[in-house]
Design brief:
mainly beta; C8orf32 fold; 17-stranded mixed sheet; 7 helices
């Protein structure tokens, strides 16, 4: 989830000093291996404000990140005003941008303490005491407030304006003195370890006696921050952090939803508060060890399905959830803003007329799955996710918890890992929900991100009741049930449902509103290959995508060339298949990437925003009996991974196109947790395609 990447825990970097007459400029570089993936520039300028000497401390940073195939830039822009004599913080203005996420925070020292608030509608100001909370743009405070001797960690509170909250941190001294290379010169620094359990992040920082930060490491990401000349950070490369939260396993499943039992051996790093006792949970046992956050052992997970019997009535009767241990799960939190006006209003709207809490949970979880798109990082917090209508698993879980709490139903956000079909089967860091529904049901697990509105499948490994980390080292599935085998789909190799030279057109709509059109021309056939040229034109020309797709007689991938233009921004993508591997390339802006992906020989292509690729699939599938399921493998060029997709035959329907009734069959498709529906005629023509989550519908035009 995104919290692991954001915050000063992964961005506050070391400095090199350039002396200017009245100004100090410090340049910071972020490295992963031999790649420079980000920078930060700090500037300190002496000023006078209202007759008082102050220091204006500005921070400008950029980190180029990719996670699970989603690329985004994380930017921080802050201006701190410090008292010149004591360096006490008088004022701060902070803005964090990460993809579509925006967090703006203003804070100011006043008579009653330091008051800060996120600058969004409905945000409430918070007041803290700088004597008990660390408020600082740098790390020189460690010499006064951090431990000065090795030993147990000291717990402190830290103001993090990037998220507009106060975070708990655990600080321990690693080394009283260590030589650090600073631009070719050895300097002595004291090294501390700082753990942010609320963000699942741990880093090491080295500070000289005069307060300069000269070493910074994020071990989980292999990230080292070190002094650098400004010229070195002028050209950055993007870092893919997927491997830090996703680990490949030995089980290849298209969809983990049916799983009711999983036995899995795990070696992974989490936060240090994870314990053997804490890994025992309803439906989950653990045998093994946990040492300093390193988990090494075997989980057995068994799940059931609740029918909701015994759940409390709704509206919640007075006193139903009055137990003291439930109160933390009914209150607003920095990331779970259950007092946000928009969240409260939507929760009440969705719950109107419900007679039981179980019914409310299902309604809200179904809505979050259908209406909140999946995006990394998305909105991050509940309020941000509501505003952006998009989020990752953390955003989905925070929003559902906030909506339930606003209705008086206790909800929390456990965290750990779950199975994903990425890379032929993996376990990835994940967050979901648990909802307290009384003694008869207990804590009901719910995963609205993947559409499990009243249960979770047995691939969910629960590590903690709140934020933690999942840094996989090795994962082996020892047993699982049910062992459902889905046969590989047979392929048609007869004539395609179009003639060479034909152009088909589909109209794109979202929630009934026209978005634009997609055309696909069957341009060439020969030598067992077929070339299709497509164009997607959405938002009145603001989004244009062109594709040249070459496939074999049975639809298997041969090559792809795609170009995407969003305004002035251009991206290109390519696939070249050779046997059971494909070279996948991309160029986004000035960033180029090439990777070899292993896959089955009969894999089909799937490019984002291409309904034409679903049309090629539909044209090569034989008619399926109602209820019959088959499996096809799809290569996603943007995810750089092959996925198994399940296709289930549905009922025969009559669909009207241009005033003509046409017989067809409904096909239900599920790919990497996403669900689609296709309506296909007996010749294999794709008549209609729909993605329920997001309200997207694409219809063939006669």
């Amino acid at each position: 989830m995104f919290e692991q990447l954001a915050g000063r825990g992964s961005l506050v970097l070391v400095c090199c000093l350039l002396q200017l007459p009245a100004q100090e400029v410090r340049t910071y570089a972020i490295r992963v291996a031999d790649r420079i993936v980000g920078y930060q520039v700090e500037t300190e300028t002496p000023r006078q404000q209202a007759g008082r000497e102050v220091v204006e401390f500005t921070v400008r940073s950029l980190l180029k990140v990719e996670v699970l195939g989603s690329s985004f830039d994380q930017k921080v822009d802050q201006t701190w005003t410090l008292a010149a004599d004591t360096r006490a913080v008088m004022r701060v203005q902070s803005q964090l941008e990460a993809g579509t996420a925006r967090v703006l925070v203003h804070g100011e020292l006043g008579e009653h303490g330091f008051t800060f608030a996120e600058q969004r509608e409905g945000a409430l100001p918070q007041v803290m005491d700088p004597a008990t909370v660390v408020v600082s743009p740098d790390y020189r405070w460690l010499w006064q407030r951090g431990p000065q001797q090795p030993g147990p960690a000291v717990e402190l509170q830290w103001f993090t304006p990037e998220f507009g909250n106060v975070s708990k941190m655990r600080v321990a001294l690693v080394a009283a003195a260590r030589e650090v290379d600073v631009l070719g010169k050895a300097e002595s620094a004291r090294i501390w370890s700082i753990e942010l359990p609320d963000h699942g992040n741990t880093f090491h920082v080295g500070v000289t006696a005069d307060g300069r930060t000269v070493r910074y490491e994020v071990p989980a990401a292999g990230m080292v921050v070190e002094p650098a000349a400004p010229a070195l950070v002028e050209r950055l490369q993007r870092v893919d952090l997927t491997h830090t939260i996703v680990g490949k396993t030995n089980l290849d499943l298209d969809d983990p939803t049916p799983l009711t039992f999983v036995k899995v051996k795990v070696v992974a790093d989490a936060t240090k508060d994870v314990s053997v006792a804490g890994l025992q949970a309803p439906g989950q046992t653990f045998v093994g060890t946990v040492v300093d956050g390193r988990i090494d052992g075997v989980f057995e997970i068994r799940t059931g399905r609740s029918d909701g019997k015994g759940a409390p009535a709704f509206p919640v009767p007075v006193g139903t959830f009055a137990a003291p241990e439930l109160q933390p799960f009914l209150r607003a939190e920095p990331a779970i803003q259950s007092d946000d006006a928009a969240i409260v209003a939507k929760a009440r709207e969705l719950a109107a007329g419900a007679t039981g809490c179980f019914q409310v949970v299902q309604r809200l979880a179904d809505w979050a799955h259908a209406e909140i798109g999946y995006a990394i990082p998305g909105g991050v917090t509940a309020a941000g996710t509501m505003a952006a209508k998009a989020g990752d698993c953390g955003g989905h879980s925070h929003l559902l918890a906030a909506m339930l709490r606003s209705l008086g139903i206790p909800a929390r956000t456990p965290m750990g890992a779950m199975y994903v079909p990425l890379y032929g089967g993996s376990f990835g860091q994940h967050m979901w929900n648990e909802v307290w529904l009384g003694d008869a049901i207990g804590w009901l697990p719910v995963d609205c991100t993947v559409g499990q509105s009243t249960f979770v499948d047995a691939s969910h490994i629960r590590l903690a009741g709140g934020v933690t980390a999942f840094r996989p080292q090795s994962i082996e599935v020892l047993d699982w049930a049910p062992r459902v085998t889905v046969a590989a789909a047979a392929r048609r190799q007869d004539a395609w449902p179009w003639q060479v030279g034909d152009t088909v057109t589909w109209a794109w709509r979202r929630n009934g509103q026209d978005l634009g059109v997609e055309t696909m021309t069957y341009e060439r056939a020969g030598d067992g290959g077929h070339l299709f040229v497509s164009r997607v034109d959405l938002a009145k020309g603001r989004f244009i995508e062109t594709m040249r797709t070459e496939v074999g007689d049975d639809g298997r991938a041969r090559s792809l060339q795609a170009q995407r233009d969003i305004g002035e921004a251009r991206s290109t993508f390519g696939v070249q298949v050779a046997g059971t591997s494909a070279t996948v390339t991309s160029k986004v802006g000035d960033e180029e990437r090439s990777e070899v992906v292993e896959m089955a020989a009969d894999t089909l292509l799937l490019h984002n925003n291409s309904v034409g690729h679903f049309a090629i699939l539909a044209a090569r599938l034989p008619p399926l009996a109602e209820g019959a399921e088959v499996r096809v493998q799809m290569l996603s060029d943007e995810s750089r991974s092959a996925f198994g997709m399940q296709v289930r035959g549905g009922a025969e329907v009559s669909i009207e196109l241009g005033g003509v009734a046409t017989k067809a069959q409904v096909l239900a498709m599920k790919l990497a947790g996403a669900e689609f529906e296709a309506v296909v005629d007996p010749q294999g023509r794709l008549l209609r395609w729909r993605q329920p989550a997001g309200g997207i519908e694409v219809v063939l035009q006669r």
